[in-house]
Amino acid sequence: MQLKKISTPEDVEKVKSFFCDIFWEETDYDLVHFYHSVSGAHDFERLEYYMGCVGDEVVGISGIYADNKDECWLGWFGVRPEYRRKGYASAILKLQLEMMKNDGYKVCRLYTDEVINKNAVPLYEKNGFVKDFEYENHIITMAKSLDGITKAAKWQGEPLGFA
Hints:
Helix content: 25-40%
């Protein structure tokens, strides 16, 4: 398993072919937002997406976004349906978290839907994330210390750009 940065139009086309299979509950706006993010049309200090690959086969996607040097967010994390429950999600997540740690981030956060993504929450918990904040409509944030020292301050519920 390896992470390959999405950096070419061909990479975007590979991801486009399965994006809606992973994020079926997302709206067309979210798909457009993802494409704009990949193309560099964003306001984040850092925003990068990666394909989780086994050989030439793309099995999933993951991303990192950050506005400061201490904290980052896991973004657009998912595995294609035909590769689920086979260990690929854990492998991609571990590689992404290791990259974040090696890049000097102390805390990683994520947000997810507890109902739609109910199978992802145990995966995150198994990998050290703890529930941090609950929004309306089953949206939660989770946090994890990457350096094993820094404790994530409780998320204060600042808007994350979703309804």
